[in-house]
């Protein structure tokens, strides 16, 4: 018997990888931009304000600490949202990969249709999510807190701590758009798979025998030795 296994397995692995990269880049973006005050309760930042050497002293030290905390708190919704979104799609895609590892003769058409809908939604939502994430980052970077923070760091030579879109934020957008393209390709492959699965399953059902042979045991009413043995007759 010919077994045709569900094809986009490699594509699913790639989607899982890009979702993981989005998650890592979101966390890295917060870590890079957290400054000396850490990440506002989200973990340790790229610097330590209590280290042996710090370029900030006195009131300037307190100022940069306050600005870092305010900036990290302003970015926190984007971080939590990005991590939750990418982690959710990571888990869903992993589930689809495991549940879809079946022969086209065995896989449910309802499952394939649900997978197609999920791919289409993930493709569209990822594009919207990337746009919202960049809009959110630009809004935070345009605040007075970010601009004051940029000036304080620039006085000590840290010009990279600016209010421009960071490389890690750009990486989030890049991998998000790649994920969107992958889910779009997955939707196309899933639609082709649904068509092929229907043809194969209809062909299998068409060639399946309508009735199975059954056996009926008939006991003879004669009392001789040969009649005592049951006779199997094909009905």
From TrEMBL:
Organism whose genome encodes this protein: Polypterus senegalus (Senegal bichir)
Main location: membrane
Keyword terms of this UniProt record: Membrane, Transmembrane, Transmembrane helix
InterPro entries attached to this UniProt entry: Marvel, MARVEL-CKLF_proteins
Superkingdom of the source species: Eukaryota
Protein name in UniProt: MALD3 protein
Ranges that cross the membrane: 79-99, 111-134, 170-194
GO biological process assignments: myelination
Pfam family, one: MARVEL
Molecular-function annotations in GO: structural constituent of myelin sheath
Membrane-topology annotation of the record: Multi-pass membrane protein
One term under GO cellular component: membrane
Keyword set includes Glycoprotein: no
Stretches assigned to the MARVEL domain: 3-195
Localization (cell): Membrane
């Amino acid at each position: 018997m010919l077994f045709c296994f569900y094809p986009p397995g490699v594509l699913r692995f790639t989607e899982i990888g890009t979702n993981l990269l989005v998650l890592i880049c979101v966390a890295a973006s917060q870590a890079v931009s957290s400054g000396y005050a850490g990440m506002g309760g989200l973990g340790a930042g790229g610097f330590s304000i209590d280290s042996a050497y710090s370029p900030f002293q006195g009131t300037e030290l307190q100022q940069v600490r306050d600005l870092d905390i305010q900036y990290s708190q302003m970015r926190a919704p984007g971080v939590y949202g990005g991590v939750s979104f990418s982690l959710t799609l990571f888990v869903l895609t992993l589930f689809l990969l495991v549940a879809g590892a079946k022969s086209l003769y065995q896989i449910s058409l309802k499952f394939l249709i649900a997978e197609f809908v999920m791919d289409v939604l993930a493709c569209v939502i990822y594009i919207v999510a990337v746009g919202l994430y960049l809009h959110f980052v630009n809004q935070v970077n345009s605040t007075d807190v970010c601009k004051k923070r940029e000036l304080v760091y620039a006085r000590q030579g840290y010009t990279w701590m600016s209010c421009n879109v960071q490389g890690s934020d750009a990486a989030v957008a890049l991998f998000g758009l790649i994920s969107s393209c992958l889910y779009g390709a997955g939707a196309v492959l899933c639609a082709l798979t649904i068509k092929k699965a229907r043809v194969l399953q209809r062909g299998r059902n068409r060639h399946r025998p309508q009735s199975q042979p059954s056996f009926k045991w008939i006991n003879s009413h004669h009392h001789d030795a040969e009649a005592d043995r049951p006779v199997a007759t094909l009905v």
